[in-house]
Design goal:
Elements: E1 8-12, H1 17-28, E2 32-37, H2 40-52, E3 56-61, H3 67-81, E4 86-89, H4 105-133, E5 136-141, H5 153-173, E6 178-185, H6 191-199, H7 201-209, H8 219-230, E7 241-244
Helix pairs in contact: 1-2, 1-8, 3-4, 4-5, 6-7
The structure holds nicotinamide-adenine-dinucleotide (NAD).
Nicotinamide-adenine-dinucleotide binds at residues 12-13, 15-19, 37-39, 42, 62-65, 90-93, 114-115, 141, 143, 185, 187-188, 190-193.
Length: 251
């Protein structure tokens, strides 16, 4: 993809699932990658996979709910690789899936803090770096839960929020050569979904049967879209929530 080679990418939540695949794809396209995750083992494993394939990556332990961690993530990307061209703000968690009145305030706060405020914290630190170098491209992970009411209420609210934040940030920086988009994955075969399947295998079968494509998505199918949205091949795409769901929300 055009414009990725020799760039510098930061991916949050890169120790697992969609983030890991995006980090690998950036590296396969020739970018240097900062692998950021709160879980060290997963992050280190992603770095090893990239390095085994001949790519360049560094793990930085980052909790996206901690401003100092996010500062350090961006600082180390710039110190080590000389700039910041691409960011995939992807760290997220599902939270409880019960009905609205049954959510604890602690669960509500945690899901919003990671999924929504975490994306804001990352952009707040990434954008000044991109402004300084004169260009940049950001992709935030939303969800089809940002377009529908499917999922726990804080999760749904957080993902609607990510799409709104993506649109607002686009308007703030579109004329400064910074593009900001979002991806809205459907049901993707990652540890997040596998955990739900372990709790309730029947529900998983029903969910899979409900996808018009007849299968779950592969994290690679999201990674491809993220790297394309960061590349020059999508140069006039701005503020767009790209749905990648095997037709699930078309029904
Ligand atoms: N898998 C799906 O079906 C699906 C669908 C729509 C959206 N998403 C979104 O995609 C993103 C990635 O999910 P996934 O399916 O790969 O799940 P996953 O659980 O495999 O990966 C999520 C990663 O985020 C990390 N993380 C969690 N809290 C963090 C924090 N505070 N700071 C830094 N890292 C943190 C986890 O350690 C983990 O490595 C999430 O934002 C999720 O909401 C997933």
């Amino acid at each position: 993809m055009n414009g990725i080679q020799d760039g510098v990418a930061v991916v949050t939540g890169a120790g697992s699932g969609i983030g890991r695949r995006t980090a690998l794809r950036f590296a396969e396209e020739g970018a240097s990658v900062v692998v950021a995750d709160i879980v060290e083992d997963g992050g280190e494993e992603t770095v090893r996979s990239i390095q085994d394939d001949g790519g360049d990556a560094t793990f930085i332990r980052t909790d996206v709910t901690d401003e100092d961690d996010v500062d350090r993530m961006v600082e180390e990307a710039v110190d080590r690789y000389g700039g910041l061209d691409f960011a995939h703000n992807n760290a997220g968690l599902e939270g409880d899936s019960n009905a609205l009145a049954e959510h604890s305030e602690a669960n509500w706060d945690q899901v919003i803090d990671v999924n929504l405020k975490g994306v804001w914290r990352c952009m707040k630190r990434e954008i000044p770096e991109m402004l300084e170098q004169g260009s940049g491209s950001i992709v935030n992970t939303a969800s089809i839960s940002g377009l529908t009411g499917s999922g726990g209420s804080p999760y749904v609210a957080s993902k609607h929020g990510v799409i709104g934040l993506t649109r607002k940030a686009t308007l703030d920086y579109a004329d400064e050569n910074i593009r900001i988009n979002a991806v809205c994955p459907g049901i993707i075969d990652t540890p997040m979904v596998q955990r739900a399947g372990e709790d309730n295998p029947e529900m998983m079968d029903q969910m899979t049967a409900g996808v018009p494509a007849g299968r779950l998505g592969d994290p690679e199918e999201i990674a491809q879209a993220v790297v394309w949205l960061c590349s020059d091949d999508s140069s006039f795409v701005m503020g767009h929530p790209l749905t990648i769901d095997g037709g699930l929300t078309v029904q």
